[in-house]
Design a protein that fits this description.
The protein has 323 residues and is α/β, with parallel strands linked by helices. It folds into 2 domains: 33-123 and 249-316, 3-Layer(aba) Sandwich (D-Maltodextrin-Binding Protein, domain 2); 126-222, D-Maltodextrin-Binding Protein, domain 2 (3-Layer(aba) Sandwich). It has 11 helices and 11 strands. Helix 2 packs antiparallel against helix 10 (277-285). It starts with a helix and ends in a 7-residue tail after the last helix.
């Protein structure tokens, strides 16, 4: 009996590591996930991302907590990925501005190689708006004033070197205009500034839609391939003779070295979240459309965009000074 008892104990002891090993390798995720959003609370990005996070929480079986990190042209979340553990529990929004960073500032990481690209989500519908009582009734009025008053027409954007800023500067370059740019941290502050008379115009995503519908702002143009259903009277840049389309696609990234199975789990969870009607409705409020890219497609997009943004920065003469 004594020998049998010892054998049973030995067998039980041998089984313990295996049992603990199973527990340690429980399927991802086993705790809350932090999603860092590049723009302030209350704006179109924040509102749509919080809806997406709620949906993803259900799909992944763990809470997805949104943390806002505005500023620096929307690049702070990507920078935080550089010091976060590569375990999938910290993910971040990757705005287009991330691909401009090496050309405009000194950084010690590579936006293409040092981020694990998870999923492409959506993009923005952009345009230029002015206060409802502005003397600029049309885009032609805006251009005429800017030409007659170099450097006096003020416009705001959601930050230096963001897509609204750079695209407006590209428009100005094409038309021979000299504008005065004022950066803000996000749409909410920007809209308050333009309605308060601190700016003559604003370049932004259609977070301005409700203010336009309320009669407080006027849309002079939009930047998509075709006119927005919500603003059928606002011409596109292409219609105004400018061969420019800007929708600034963005998605989610994780730290470099995140295990492929974790990246896939995150992709699949957020892909399910994207298909939820609540998210589709949230996007619709801001004229945003789904632009789904799987992880491999998003990685290729990052590589391609990195090269395109270099060309744009050089064209505008906004690159970092040579040392």
């Amino acid at each position: 009996m004594h020998r049998r008892h010892l054998l049973q104990l030995a067998a039980a002891s041998a089984a313990l590591p295996a049992a603990f090993g199973v527990r340690a390798q429980a399927p991802f995720p086993t705790r809350p996930i932090k999603l860092i959003v590049a723009f302030p609370a209350g704006g179109p990005t924040d509102i749509t991302m919080r809806t997406l996070a709620d949906n993803a929480s259900r799909a992944l079986g763990q809470v997805v907590i949104v943390e806002n990190k505005p500023g620096a042209g929307g690049t702070l979340p990507a920078q935080q990925l550089q010091t976060a553990p590569a375990d999938g529990y910290t993910i971040a929004q990757i705005p287009l501005g991330v691909f401009r960073m090496p050309y405009t500032t000194k950084i010690n990481w590579d936006p293409v190689k040092d981020i694990s690209y998870v999923i492409g989500l959506t993009g923005y519908a952009f345009g230029i708006v002015v206060p409802a009582d502005s003397p600029f009734k049309t885009w032609a009025d805006f251009v005429a004033y800017a030409k007659a008053n170099p450097g006096k027409l003020t416009y705001g954007s959601t930050g230096a070197l963001t897509s609204p800023h750079l695209t407006t500067e590209l428009i100005a370059q094409r038309l021979g205009l000299q504008l005065q740019h004022v950066p803000y941290k996000g749409s909410a502050d920007l809209m308050q500034a333009v309605m308060g008379g601190h700016l003559m115009a604003a370049a932004d995503s259609t977070g301005f839609a409700q203010l336009v519908e309320a009669g407080k702002l006027r849309v002079l143009n939009t930047w998509g391939d075709k006119r927005l259903e919500k603003f059928p009277d606002a011409p596109t840049l292409k219609e105004l003779g400018l061969d420019i389309v800007q929708n600034s696609p963005f998605g989610l990234g994780a730290p470099r070295g995140t295990p492929p199975e974790v990246v896939k789990r995150l992709h699949d969870g957020f892909r399910t979240a994207m298909q939820d009607p609540a998210y589709q409705q949230a996007l619709g409020r801001y004229d945003m459309v789904p632009i789904h890219m799987d992880s491999a497609q998003y990685q290729r997009f990052a590589q391609q965009t990195y090269g395109q943004e270099k060309a744009l920065i050089e064209k505008l003469g906004l690159g970092k000074p040579a040392v």
